[in-house]
Amino acid sequence: MQPLYVAFDAALAALSLRSIAVLRGRAPWTSLGWTGTAGYCAAAIVEFSSDPLHRAAALLAYAFLLFLTVAFVIAGVRDEPQAEPLLWPTRVGLTRAEKRQRSG
Fold first, then answer.
1. Domain residue spans in the chain?
2. Res 103: pLDDT
3. In this predicted structure, what is the pLDDT of residue 52?
4. This prediction's pTM
5. Three-state helix/strand/coil letters over 36-102
6. Radius of gyration of the CA atoms of the chain, in A
7. How distant, in Å, are the alpha carbons of 21, 39, 50 from that of 94?
8. CA distance linking residue 70 with residue 96, whole number of Å
9. CB contact set of 25 (below 8 Å; sequence gap of 6+)
10. How many CB atoms within 10 Å of residue 39?
11. What is the per-residue pLDDT for 86?
12. Which of 67, 57, 52 is nearest to 6 (CA)?
């Protein structure tokens, strides 16, 4: 068991769930990315806390990592808003286009 990895993954899972709650469907691909992050964290917690399930959980974690990467890339291309601030989201931020419009 590796308690530091488990603690980090638990904190990241909490941040993921908080981001999903803040976005509430306004940014579907970003929400899918955060859902993938929460899935990755759950698989990583099992990977780092259970020797018999280590290999299967590692493969599942890599699958979630691929899923969350694709979802966040699509969200970035679509210029979806993000949950802000980064460390503990409380509101939906502006998109890049909205930021340019306000500054220009």
1. 3-103
2. 86
3. 92
4. 0.91
5. HHHHHHHHHHHHHHCCCCHHHHHHHHHHHHHHHHHHHHHHHHHCCCCEECCCCCCEECCCHHHHHHH
6. 15
7. 17, 26, 41
8. 19
9. 31
10. 19
11. 86
12. 57
Measure CA 101 to chain center: 27
Going by C-alpha positions, the residue among 32, 34, 28 that lies closest to residue 16 is 34
Residue 18: is it exposed, middle or buried by C-beta count within 10 angstroms (0-12/13-18/19+)?
middle
Question: Distance between CA atoms of 27 and 20, rounded to whole angstroms?
Answer: 9
Task: Find out whether 66 and 91 touch, Cβ atoms under 8 Å.
Answer: no
What are the angstrom distances between the C-alpha of 91 and each of 21, 24, 38, 62, 95? 10, 10, 19, 30, 13
Q: Which residues of the chain have pLDDT under 70?
A: none
Task: Please tell me the distance from the alpha carbon of residue 93 to that of residue 52, in angstroms, as a whole number.
Answer: 42
The torsion angles phi and psi of 2, rounded to 5 degrees, stand at -120, 90
Tell me whether the omega of the peptide bond preceding residue 85 falls within 30 degrees of 0, making it cis: yes
